[in-house]
Amino acid sequence: MIEDKHSGGENLSPFSEILEEMNQEGGFDRSVLATSEGLPIASSPLQLDQELTSAMIAMLQQVGAETQDHLNLAAVDEVTIRTEDRMHLVCRRIQSGSDWICLCALVPAGCYYRRATNRAVRRINQIIEE
Q1: Which pLDDT band holds residue 2 (cuts at 50, 70, 90)?
Q2: Contact 123, 113 (CB under 8 A)
């Protein structure tokens, strides 16, 4: 299991640091990295909304499974929901051995997310592969 050990104080763990930098780069409101079961690994800001995390992961699992089953597609690696006010909820799936973790971000209207989330996924993969 991947863990994000936060020692407290000003020193952020590698995963929390990645999320903080991603939020700054993309102008995101908040983000979370969680296991496939919805258990948080890291978040930015550090205060975590467990209900939101669980809801995002459940949504990703449901949409991904139904899409794959009904349309015979390969594994889904991103699910994006856009609200009427043009805010986005972006969930990126990252393979971790035989399991996966999920990077989710709340993206305000008018902000682009692909470059920032791609960079964060690459950095997370580097840590996982170490």
Answers
A1: low
A2: no
pLDDT (tens digit, 9 = 90+) per residue, 97-114?
Answer: 888 888 999 999 999 999
- Which residue type sits at 35? T
Q: Provide mean pLDDT across the span 72-80.
A: 82
- Please check whether residue 36 is in contact with residue 102, taking contact to mean a CB–CB distance below 8 angstroms: yes
What class has domain 14-129?
A: alpha beta
Beta carbons of 26 and 18 less than 8 angstroms apart: no
Q: How does DSSP assign 51-90, residue by residue? A: HHHHHHHHHHHHHHHHHHHHHT-----EEEEE-TT--EEE
Two tokens, residue 53: 């995390």
